[in-house]
Amino acid sequence: MTRFSRYSLLTFLFLAASFLSGEVWMQAVRHTSFCTTSACDVVGEYVRFGEGNLIKMGAAFFWFLWGLVFFGGRYDKKWIWGLASLLLFGALAFDGAILGFQFMGLKEKCLLCVIVGATLFTGLCLFAWVRKSLLTVFLGVAVWCGGFTANAVLDLNVVPPAITDTAFGTWETAPDNAPQHVLFFSLHCDHCSKILANLSINAQTLPGKWHLASTDNKEDDLYRLATVQNSTASKENLFLEVLRVESMDTIDPVPVSEDLRQTVRTARAYFKMKGFKGVPVLVVMERPGWEMILRGEGNITEYLRVRGFLQRELQFPRNAPKAAGNATAG
After folding, report:
1. Is 231 helix (H, G, I), strand (E, B) or coil?
2. Which residue among 98, 133, 152, 278 is least packed, with the fewest CB closer than 10 Å?
3. CA 219 to CA 211: how far, in whole Å?
4. How far apart (Å, rounded) are the C-alpha atoms in residues 96 and 81?
């Protein structure tokens, strides 16, 4: 063991622990993340104790491993290095299982999890350099591959969350047996705004339940969704209130409930797992076990027109500028 190799390992572990600690801080205080891909939302839905706690465990692991390497270098006790080896191999097995479930079960690739996996492999190589043991690298790779393969070959029957759990707002004029509708939209999509506009002028005559599910998870967007939820005008016309809040140049920060954040995460997870590529998307639940999916402004408007939901209809210029939907955000 040379001083340079040990310091290299200590520096790397310090940076890894700091990175995950920063992620914990960003999620707790800023309500954002280094990872902006929708895959993170999907994977987080399947962590029993929450994605945030998983990241805290990762940060604690790297800090604890840093401590073992630090004291192992000072006192060079075999049991300290043995404990560090067990901890590292256990983390590799855990990471392999997590990534195996993601890649093969969920068909997703969470960027943050991939970065952590790469960090573990780099740490393994530096650890082997410190201990001057090439066998450590082979053992670590074997342990990771075992965890990955075990979860890759199992069929865990992954199913998307319940679609009604994706809605942050629901509109219902009078209970009846008409189909339920779930509209996935973005606050940054002109096509969605046109559909909402036509729904707003027919709101009082729309039959059944109409659920609105947003795919936007930026903090400013969450302020807007929370404003819609808390507004009394939403009870008079939910669609019109969404359009009003959407059109505001700036929005005052308002408290965003954890329920709303979870609802948006669920909506994004459902959207991604169903393979939807962009908004707007309207899911019509005719009856249990029978769903119809309509994609795009034209198909949704035609459905509303054929079903007689548009007793009045706004006509928009065909040469109006089109904005891309923010369906998968990153």
Report:
1. coil
2. 133
3. 22
4. 22
CB within 8 Å of 234: residues ≥ 6 apart:
169, 228, 241
CB atoms within 10 A of CB 230: 11
For the whole model, what pTM was predicted?
Answer: 0.65
Mean pLDDT, consecutive 10-residue stretches, the chain (330 aa), reads 86 95 86 73 72 89 95 86 94 92 81 91 94 92 93 73 91 78 95 96 92 93 95 95 95 93 90 88 86 94 94 78 42
Query: pLDDT value at position 329?
Result: 41
Rg, the chain, Cα only = 25
φ, ψ of residue 215 to 5 degrees: the values are -100, 10
Distance, CA of 279 to CA of 27 (rounded, Å): 26
DSSP 95-112: HHHHHHIIIIII----HH
Beta strands in the chain (DSSP E): 169-172, 180-185, 209-214, 281-287, 290-295
| Tokens 């192992």, residue located | 72
Interacting residues of 194 by C-beta distance below 8 A, sequence separation 6+:
297, 301, 314, 316
Two tokens, residue 115: 């970065």
